[in-house]
Specification:
The chain is an alpha+beta fold and about 200 residues long. About 45% of the residues lie in helices and about 15% in strands.
């Protein structure tokens, strides 16, 4: 292990959050060869109790997934996302960056601000700027934490439509498009939202 690899290893071990190669290089005084060091370290830690993983363009150490059951001291309370939040997260992941109005157009129902707040509090989405146009609406995108939580290296690893349908994960969205009422309290029909039939007629 060369000095750059040792320095990168130490920096990531002490870091409070995941880091990009550029951030590591700046942190180490402009060190060169950081990308190669990261790849070498990832190979070095592969199959060990802790692993060096890449999520998007950021790197961090984590415990090996197959050892997670040995490290839990207490049973975690599983908090399930509401149907509205699940649909909104899926739409953002597959179409980012998107505005709230665009999310509503795809869902066919109004999306409460609280739904997006829940996803932001979980650290899975972030404000990605504003759309150029009337009103300059806020647009949203997923975060590295979203990739890490779902074990994805990048958005290219998201499952395809047929995989989602086979897993039953498209049922809520398809039910909405079929005209089934949404049982979410925040899902009242918005006068400005676009229904599936209206989208078909305008196509």
């Amino acid at each position: 292990m060369n000095e750059v690899e040792r320095a990168v290893e130490a920096a990531l071990f002490a870091a409070e959050a995941s880091m990009t190669a550029d951030e590591l290089s700046r942190h180490l005084g402009g060190a060169e060869g950081v990308e190669a060091a990261l790849e070498a370290l990832a190979a070095h830690y592969e199959g060990r109790g802790i692993e060096l993983v890449r999520r998007g363009d950021r790197w961090h150490f984590q415990t090996a997934p197959d050892l997670a059951h040995l490290l839990r001291r207490e049973r975690e309370d599983v908090r399930r996302l509401s149907r509205a939040a699940t649909e909104a997260l899926a739409i953002i992941a597959y179409h980012e960056p998107v505005s709230r109005a665009e999310i509503e157009a795809i869902r066919g129902v109004q999306t409460a601000k609280g739904t997006l707040d829940v996803l932001m509090e979980a650290g899975w989405i972030k404000v990605a700027g504003r759309r150029e146009g009337p009103g300059r609406p806020t647009i949203y995108a997923t975060t590295p934490e979203f990739l890490a939580h779902f074990g994805l290296e990048s958005r290219r690893d998201l499952p395809g439509i047929e995989e989602l349908r086979a897993a039953g994960l498209l049922d809520p969205v398809e039910a909405v498009f079929a005209g089934e009422p949404d049982d979410e309290p925040d899902a009242e029909r918005d006068e400005g939202a676009v229904s599936a039939s209206e989208l078909d007629e305008s196509a």
